[in-house]
Every structure is written in structure tokens, then in C-alpha cells.
Write a structure and sequence with these properties.
- By secondary structure, the chain is an alpha/beta fold.
- It has nine helices and 13 strands.
- 32% of the residues lie in helices and 21% in strands.
- The chain has a nine-stranded mixed sheet with strand order 5-4-1-8-9-10-11-12-13, sandwiched between helices. The protein has a four-stranded mixed sheet with strand order 3-2-6-7.
- 43% of the residues are buried.
- Helix 4 (155-168) runs parallel beside helix 5.
């Protein structure tokens, strides 16, 4: 059956989870009330892109449970196309819990407890990509965005990311990859799928520290040599800003913004969403990166995983 709505400009591919946070900043051992939200790297990007007015879809798997229903309600409420979300009748929706904490500088640093083993998202297989609705979204979008978390969910998720790269390789679709390296995910897994996903990417977003862990180098020259296929690399250096690396062009530095950090969780996803939104609307690369900084800053000053107030979509 033909689609009744236009294909999205960006499709985000990856897990979403229910998020529980204790009310009143009390330790988990004493918490008896929680607020419930929804999060996940690609899910956060999809929500923020849709809020910017970018036609956005999200492809994933959820459990046939109340948490899965909540995640879908949140996505639909933001205007995200969820026609590519598969519901698993047997496996649950993943969950993570934020345990309040404080860093040495007095800022909030929540500890994250993940309950995703055996989740519906971790059971994704390459067959997911052959579903008509999913294939239409992935091959019809201008950009497909995925993070390095997705291939680390399970061995089958890694194979799914291999299949995703194969699906997009002969097409004009831009594959955007945010490294988002989580060492704990790879403790018992072969990280070959992560490296292959990076090798296939047209645009790569990564921090200097994670570049050192994954690529063995955090320098501009080293990262460029390690990712020769990438059309553009955004090398993030936290408070120093972002270095834009493009073949045949001088390196471009875009300084970060200074804010009083309340909670860092989700800032990288917000940066990715702001950058992708800027590029979708035709902003020059430096202005799109700056929009990413502004979007990240708006997330750093709140306790949620997404910005409460979006910056204007202008240079």
C-alpha cells in the first residue's frame, strides 16, 4: 500500500528506553516515587529534529508493554513518524534509571543504570530492514542517523548495522554516525560492527576521548587518516568546541558555548540534532555546528535528556 504521507528527511535508527528518575533527588535506595520519561541516543535526536520542524522518522523495536506504549506516545506527540517501529510480543522495552549524583565541581552527574539485556531493541536482526515500511523510510530519507550504541546492543544488532550500511551504500542517502562510544557495551562483543559502521559513514561525529579509545588517535590528522571515506568529520573537544574536518579543505574550528552545567546527559544527542537540523535547512556548515552547540547548551542547563527550549533555527 502506498504511503499517505511524504517520506521523512531524516530517519533515526536505534533503541529507545523508558527512563525513571527519583522524585526529589533522593538516592535510589530511598526513592519510592519516580518520574517517567523516554530516552535513547537516536530517539533523543529524532524528537529534537521533529521539534525543529524537520520531517523525521524513527526505526526501532519495542516491547508490547506499557513502557513501549509510552515511548510511542512520546514519539507521536512530537510528530515523529513511527511506521518503522516493530513491536515484539515476547521481549520487553528497555529501561534505564537515573541515580542522582554530584561531581567534584558541584554539578549534577547522574549515574545511569541500564536494563536492556534481552530487550526488544537488542533482538533486532537484519530482517527488520526488509520490512516494507522500514525499507521505504531508510532508502527514501536524505539522511539516516545512527549511533555507535546500536551495534553494541547485541551480536544480531551488529549484523543489522552491517546490513544497514550495505543497504545505503549504493544510494545517495547520507549515513550519519555519532560514535557515542560506551565501553561497557563492548565488553563481551566483537567491536568489528562498530568499526565497519564508522568506515561506511558519510558524516561522523565523535569526541577526542572516544576517538582515542576506538581509533587509537584523537588528533585531527590521525582521525582523518582512520576515516578516509567520511565526507565530513566533527571532532568534538568538549569546552574547546568542534573541529570540522573535510577532504581538501582547511580544518575549521567552531568554539563551544559556555554555560553552567546542570546535567550533561543528552547534550551530545542535542548537538547532533541541532547540526542535522541546520544542514537540513541549508545553513552553512559552521552555522549548523553552532546551532548544534546552542542546542547542546540548552540541554546542559536542564535535568532532562532533551532541551526544554530550542534555539532559533537561524545562523
Amino acid at each position: 500500500m502506498p504511503r499517505s504521507t511524504p517520506l521523512p528527511a531524516v530517519t533515526c535508527f536505534g533503541e529507545a528506553m523508558a527512563v525513571l528518575t527519583p522524585v526529589g533527588e533522593v538516592p535510589l535506595a530511598h526513592a519510592d516515587r519516580f518520574t517517567r520519561t523516554a530516552g535513547g541516543a537516536e530517539f533523543n535526536v529524532a524528537l529534537t529534529l521533529a521539534r525543529f520542524g524537520v520531517p523525521t522518522a524513527w526505526v526501532s523495536r519495542l516491547g508490547d508493554d506499557g513502557f513501549g506504549e509510552h515511548v510511542l506516545d512520546v514519539a507521536r506527540g512530537h510528530g515523529v513518524d513511527v511506521s518503522g517501529v516493530e513491536v515484539d510480543p515476547d521481549r520487553p522495552t528497555g529501561l534505564y534509571v537515573k541515580a542522582p549524583g554530584t561531581a567534584a565541581d558541584g554539578s549534577r552527574r547522574s549515574r545511569m543504570h541500564y536494563y536492556r539485556n534481552g530487550s526488544a531493541a537488542s533482538a533486532m536482526t537484519p530482517e527488520l530492514l526488509t520490512a516494507p515500511a522500514v525499507a521505504a523510510l531508510l532508502t527514501g530519507s536524505r539522511t539516516v542517523h545512527v549511533s555507535g550504541i546500536t551495534p553494541g546492543l547485541s551480536a544480531s544488532a551488529g549484523r543489522t548495522c552491517d546490513a544497514l550500511a550495505d543497504l545505503l551504500r549504493p544510494r545517495d542517502t547520507v549515513l550519519s554516525v555519532d560514535l557515542n562510544h560506551r565501553p561497557a557495551l563492548w565488553r563481551d562483543l566483537d567491536d568489528g560492527p562498530l568499526h565497519r559502521l564508522l568506515d561506511a559513514a558519510d558524516e561522523v561525529l565523535l569526541g577526542e576521548d572516544e576517538a582515542v579509545r576506538v581509533l587509537g588517535t584523537g588528533t585531527a590528522a590521525g582521525v582523518r587518516a582512520a576515516l578516509p571515506r567520511a565526507r565530513r568529520i566533527l571532532l568534538k573537544a568538549e569546552e574547546r568546541g568542534v573541529l570540522v574536518l573535510e577532504p581538501g579543505r582547511p580544518d575549521l574550528h567552531v568554539p563551544a558555548l559556555r554555560v553552567d552545567v546542570v546535567e550533561p546527559v543528552g547534550a551530545g544527542d542535542a548537538f547532533a540534532a541541532g547540526y542535522l537540523a541546520g544542514r537540513h535547512t541549508g545553513l552553512p556548515v559552521p552555522d549548523a555546528v553552532l546551532l548544534g552547540h546552542r542546542c547542546a547548551a540548552a540541554t546542559l542547563v536542564v535535568r532532562g535528556d532533551q532541551p526544554e527550549h530550542l534555539p532559533e533555527l537561524v545562523a
